[in-house]
Design goal:
This protein has 130 residues and is of the alpha+beta class. The protein is built from four helices and four strands. The chain has a four-stranded mixed sheet with strand order 1-2-3-4, with helices on both faces. Helix 1 runs parallel beside helix 4.
Length: 130
């Protein structure tokens, strides 16, 4: 597990490069924002999390059934991750942040769609700021 990266992952880098190419400036891994989002656009109060499918529990019900070593440990760990993600989403939303969570495969296959979603949110916030 020591080889598992918490930041600077391939999916984060891909999304960041696409955002930068669109002229969107951001901060990465901002420790002053609750939940330490992978990408934060503070000016518009937008945070983005780039979640891997395994660690954040995509198809968690299927994962529970599949045969993995040390099953009880992993099920508990991933369940805690899902619970923490929900708490972070709720807290940030209640405090005026727009929260995006993109799965790794979404970023890998549909990065343009992810960027378009973020751009749309920025445009909506720009209108509200004026």
């Amino acid at each position: 597990m020591s080889k598992i990266r918490g930041k600077e992952t391939g999916i984060e880098i891909k999304l960041r490069k696409a955002l930068w190419a669109e002229g969107i400036r951001y901060r990465k891994n901002v420790s002053t924002i609750y939940g330490r989002p992978d990408i934060a656009i503070k000016k518009y109060k937008i945070v983005i999390f780039c979640d891997s499918e395994f660690w954040h529990g995509l198809d968690f019900e299927k994962l529970k059934i599949s045969t993995i070593a040390n099953k009880e440990y992993w099920i508990n760990k991933i369940a805690r991750n899902i619970e923490r993600d929900t708490i972070v989403n709720t807290y940030l939303s209640e405090n005026g942040w727009i929260v995006f969570r993109f799965w790794g495969r979404q970023i890998g296959k549909e990065v343009k769609m992810c960027v378009d979603t973020i751009v749309k949110a920025i445009e909506e916030r720009r209108i509200k700021i004026r």
